[in-house]
Amino acid sequence: MSDADEIRLEPCEPGRLTPAELRTLFLFEKLTDDQLAWLAEHGCTMRVPGGGLVLREGDPATSFFVLLTGTITLTRRVGQDEVTTVRTEQRGVYMGATQAYLRDDGIPRTYQASMRALSDSEFFVLSADDFGGLMRDWFPMAIHLLEGLALGIQSSQAAIGERQRLAALGALSAGLMHELNNPAAAASRATGALRQRVGAMRMKLGKLAAGKVAPDRLTALLELQEEVIERAAKAPAMTALQTADLEDQLGDWMEDREITAAWDLAPVFAQGGIDTGCLTDLESRLDSPELLDQAIHWIGYALETEQLMSDIEEATGRVSKLVHAAKQYSHVDRSAHQWIDVHVGLDSTLVMLAHKIGEGVRVVKDYDRDLPEIPAHPAQLNQVWTNLIDNAVQAMAGSGTLTVRTYAVDDRLIVSIGDSGPGITPEVRKRIFEPFFTTKAVGEGTGLGLDISYRIVVNSHGGDIQVESQPGDTRFLVRLPFSEPASA
């Protein structure tokens, strides 16, 4: 929606509703005849053509609207995007200057959302002054209660919302720092060990040269070192038992030849997948028992150096992956609304919550990678995945199976997030999406996570979210359209 869009309200004929017609609206059905007559005198009917803008968020709240016919949508601006919050055709719904009755505290009253007519629509309209006056005159006690309720809700929502945002940010930041610290510490340790190994390897090379090794033998040794390193890089993965058996064989072989620190060198060669056959080949090519000890130590240093460099590469790659996941999760460098692959957000959320998921929870990903992209607000959907995965992990109390599945049903993409926890009772299931409803202990939850998730999926994306639960199998099913919602 452009700020340049014009608001065009067209007065209808005859221009006003009768008291009898006003009584058919649920908002006015209990009023007296005199009150209805006053409304008929001070209000009027207006119409807006389909597609027309009725009111704009942020403009002064000058009118109170009641829908008579047609379909309307309410939107809120989030950054550069318009987020749909309500789409309705229910006769009698009201919007606009709904808080005109509040006491004048010097703060300008503005529309809290924009309203557009999706089809030709008609409204009963009162000025904000008239609406505020009748509320204060006709219902003085109710106004005192409403003012207190409005101020109390604003204060509590501000406090709870701020604390919830800080808590969520703190938890994610702490988790990210924890995840980053592990590979960073591993890289630091490997770097220190690498410096020692390189220094020892230089000294060993000097000793080999000082031993007056013939040039052809030294060349052969260097070639063999490269062959050993290449062989280690291509070595197949072994089980712990296979590695232990190979260490024993290598240790016995080296001990038979009186290699110093044989049992310290054996694990290095075993980890590189080097067997006794390779060492025997080394022995025959050297053809010098007195140099075998130094040669094996030198190649051992080379192997350990390669292993340490692989550790550093893996650790720094993990850091890069975490930073990339955090970037994908927050979408700080991308537009808010776009066509996305939903699996990218799911994967980045799982990475961000790895510290919460823990080692006791097995994560199963069953993705249909052939699913097309969908139109969405990725940062908002990541908030949904965060809430659902966090709840699932808490339900399993640190032990169980978390299943994240994607598939298609008709024109909807389904994201299923399931857990093997104790399940949700039917009584709780009925209220699970209500604002402030929570089953957590006092101080452990605000009861807003699933309410926020519901509003993001349903109102912002035109989708649906449901829960299916029985002991050992609870699944939240998020249904998202493959095409832009009609009300977007």
Structure description:
With 488 residues, this protein is α+β, with helices and mostly antiparallel strands. It has three domains: 10-138, Jelly Rolls; 177-319, no CATH class; 336-481, Heat Shock Protein 90, CATH 3.30.565.10. It contains 14 helices and 16 strands. A hairpin with a 2-residue loop joins strand 15 and strand 16 (473-481). Helix 4 runs antiparallel to helix 9, helix 5 (215-233) packs parallel to helix 9 (289-330) and helix 10 (342-352) crosses helix 12. It is rod-shaped, with a radius of gyration of 35 Å. Residues 27-135 form the Cyclic nucleotide-binding domain. It catalyses: ATP + protein L-histidine = ADP + protein N-phospho-L-histidine. Keywords: Kinase, Transferase, Two-component regulatory system.
Sum this structure up briefly:
This protein has 488 residues and is an alpha+beta fold.
Question: What characteristics describe this protein?
Answer:
single chain, 488 residues, alpha+beta, Jelly Rolls, Heat Shock Protein 90, 3 domains, five-stranded antiparallel beta sheet, five-stranded mixed beta sheet, 14 helices
